[in-house]
Amino acid sequence: MKLAVLTDIHANLPALLAVLEHIDAWQPDAVVVAGDIVNRGPRPVECLELMLERQRTAGWRLVLGNHEEYVLHHAAPGAERSGPQFEISRLGYWTLQQLDGQVAALAALPFQQSLAAPDGNEARVAHASMRGTRDGIYPDTPDETLRRQVGRPRPALFAVGHTHVPLVRRLDGALVVNVGAVGMPFDGDPRASYGQMTWRGGWQAEIVRLPYDRRQTEQDFADTGFLVDGGALARLMLLELQHARSHLYRWRQTYEAAVLAGELTVEQSVERHLETRR
After folding, report:
1. pLDDT by residue for the chain (278 residues), tens digit each?
2. Alpha helices (H) along 102-141
3. Hey, which of 63, 154, 211, 230 has its CA 20 to 30 A from 240?
4. How far is it, in rounded angstroms, from Cα 260 to Cα 88?
């Protein structure tokens, strides 16, 4: 049995197309897309439509990610449309505007997917962990924490994404795999990442890295209006793409509280963040 797991596409169409071509050549028995198809990137409509088409025509299974949740938040009645919190999350509002008429597909996504291995044991896929869509599994996550993140009953295989940092670990007989990110890796390697899991009397995993046309993705940031209309934090998304490192996390630690308190605008905080890199 061959299982492909991809996640954290983040509306990066060239990266997704490279991964799809590789998966089609590998011909897995099952494919799970573990969330964050949209948001944080410039081509949400095209990426979502591709995944929904694969769901309809090839039986691919999809999972909810935290960035789908962010977009759904903006679609809710009474969602804010101004103020510091809105400016921080403006990327999600921009994505919502692009996805006009397709929000129901996001709302229908399940929290997890489970498949049966040839021996009947469970292979489970979620976005971040069984504790939530934002509860990431990292290479240095302690075993005791990881046990709670994997949950019970313990599956034979547990595959996730969310952190944009790939890993393969074994825990209590289970294979735990973070397949990294298709659209925006954070491990210093800018190539698209996805996971190939193979059953050979037990699960084995390989993290596949693929080059793609990153210049086209950078051009998409400009051509779609994402950089201008997505708010000041869109500039950090471009840096993340270019450097294959997280910038938003560092920005949140340093500036988010001050922005929410009205001491800085988002634009001012981004300028300060960028100054530290010059």
Report:
1. 999 999 999 999 999 999 999 999 999 999 999 999 999 999 999 999 999 999 999 999 999 999 999 999 999 999 999 999 999 999 999 999 999 889 999 999 999 999 999 999 999 999 999 999 999 999 999 999 999 999 999 999 999 999 999 999 999 999 999 999 999 999 999 999 999 999 999 999 999 999 999 999 999 999 999 999 999 999 999 999 999 999 999 999 999 999 999 999 999 999 999 998 76
2. 103-107
3. 63
4. 9
